[in-house]
Amino acid sequence: MSAAGGRRSTLPGFGLTMGLTLTWLSIIILIPLAGLFLRTFELSLDQFWGIVTSRRTLNALKISFGLAFAAAVVNLVMGLIVVWALVRYRFPGRRIFDAIVDVPFALPTAVAGVALTSLFAQTGWLGAPLAELGIKVAFTPIGIFIAMIFIGIPFVVRTVQPVLIDLDAEIEEAAASLGANRWHTVSKVILPSLIPALLTGFALAFARAVGEYGSVIFIAGNLPNVSEIAPLLIVIRLSEFRYADATAIAVVMLVAAFLIIFAVNRIQRWAQTRIPAH
Amino acid sequence: MSELQSYLSSARDDLRTEPRPVRIVIIAIAVIFLVVFVVLPLVVVFAQAFSKGIGAYLSALSDPEAWSAIRLTLLVAAISVSLNLVFGVIAAWAIAKFEFRGKTFLISLIDLPFSVSPVISGLVFVLLFGGQGYWGPWLQAHNIQVLFAVPGIALATIFVTFPFVARALIPLMQEQGTLEEEAAISLGASGLQTFFRVTLPNIKWGVLYGVLLCNARAMGEFGAVSVVSGHIRGETNTMPLLVEILYNEYQFVSSFAIASLLAMLALITLVAKTILEQHLDEGQQPRGD
Questions:
Q1: Within 10 Å of residue B104's Cβ, how many Cβ atoms?
Q2: What's the CA gap between A45 and A53, in Å, rounded?
């Protein structure tokens, strides 16, 4: 809570620090992003539409968004299981497992990429047994899916964790003493109060996986129309000096990312009005 | 009495937990998931790096190309972390210590780089400074190299690491309010004195926290840097880019040796982060002395 009394601050430096902040923000973030949008205005609507709906672009966007969505669903379910075990149970190594949830945040994406590839390649520790079962992971869309799951692990866990810790024990006890069995208490009382956090974590994991590049390109195989993600197609178009194509794909992805942030903000506002602050 | 109490409290615990078999299954699923997706990838990095013995590992790291990548990575991280530190603190002062309209909007603008694909973070600078970019021809005419050189790599890195310091400080400084600073000012301290003597000691753990995460991302950034670097061997390859190049050339020991350094950086970052979080939690409680 900010100090409600001192509405008009007597501290110095507001004009100077605000001016510097806006200048730095403009130079690093706003002008470069505006440049990207200006570039697309140089295209006619037909040109833009032609690029975005060309078979290869459309497939790359489908692969990035489709697999990112599927990976975020896995992260939603697995994240809930992981956070439940970490918060509610005591088991050996719990604190270490809690700490390593953040590894996908901290590990450089290129390192994650080569590590996952060597793990899931047909000669790899996990790739070899999977290959015997007839499942090929590396250099197929499944590989992209695996890398996107990896990169999204921390989001659901870290957004749900504080909510689950703060959850009022008395509500659960009340439900139980009123005769609800454990499954009813969990599904009717606990899970509903976790929904905003779960949705936020899901959206953040989804957004991250859509734009992910480093951890995906090594394991993906990068076959056009099959296992080529949208960020890679941007890089390829740039290397071919087809700036217009790269820009158009980038704008589509940026707008999608903004829509996701907007959704996250709405979810959080909805959660604040739904649950009275304690 | 105490027996009754312990009976009651264990009965209350029973109300809040699942039957033992369910607990075991949930823990097992969580542990297996984390081992497969987090522990094994970490282990495989070191296993591959040392697969030909420690001699091959050390010789891979003493390669001049590796050294040039390490130097460039440190240089770029130093530039981008120090700039983002200064401006992150300035932004946090403006946002946390004053009330103004559009504050939430300003914070979401600062957060923007987190939701932009790394590749796009590089692309925007290619569109500004590249041969076909807005300012490319002018820069070429004046012989100024931005793209495929340190300035471009630093700019892209500053872009992706922009939010870290400000984000770590804004909630912390908002919580601390302005009373201590107002007291210092009313006692005749100047603005800078107030900041360095009053505010900075209060936020030092938060500053370290922001710098730590900013640095980890700056050293590890791949997508954005990859787009602006030009991959000039021995010149514009950072450590993550060298990992990619060596891997694509099937020089696995060398690639994973560099990767192992970055993995160690990540592990050290996580340990330091855990320690700093404890300090930050303690700082939030009223101080006893």
A1: 10
A2: 12
In the block, residue with structure tokens 């984390």: B34
Q: By the 8 A CB rule, do B65 and A117 touch?
A: no
Q: What is the pLDDT of residue A268?
A: 83
Q: Are A119 and A41 in contact (CB under 8 A)?
A: no
Interface of B with A in 191-220 (CB under 8 A): 191, 194, 216, 219-220
SS3 A123: coil
Is residue A277's pLDDT more than 80? no
Which residue do the tokens 């075990």 mark? A85
Does the beta-carbon distance from B221 to A108 stay under 8 Å? yes
- Using the structure block, give the residue that is written with the tokens 């297996």: B32
% residues pLDDT > 90 (chain B): 81
d(CA B228, CA B223): 9
Looking at chain B, how many residues does it have? 289
**A3 has pLDDT over 70:** no
> Any idea what the Cα angle at residue A87 is, between residues A115 and B45, rounded to 5°?
10
Residue A53 to residue A89: CA distance in whole angstroms = 50
CB contact under 8 A, A211 and B95: no
pLDDT tens digits along B91-142: 999 999 999 999 989 999 999 999 899 999 999 999 999 888 889 889 989 9
**ipTM given for this complex:** 0.91
Closest CB to A7: pick one of B33, B99, B222. B99
Nearest residue on chain B to A262, alpha-carbon basis: B108
Nearest alpha-carbon partner for B49 in B257, B263, B242, B246: B257
Could you tell me which residues come within 8 angstroms of residue A12 by beta carbon, excluding any fewer than 6 positions away? B185, B190, B191, B194
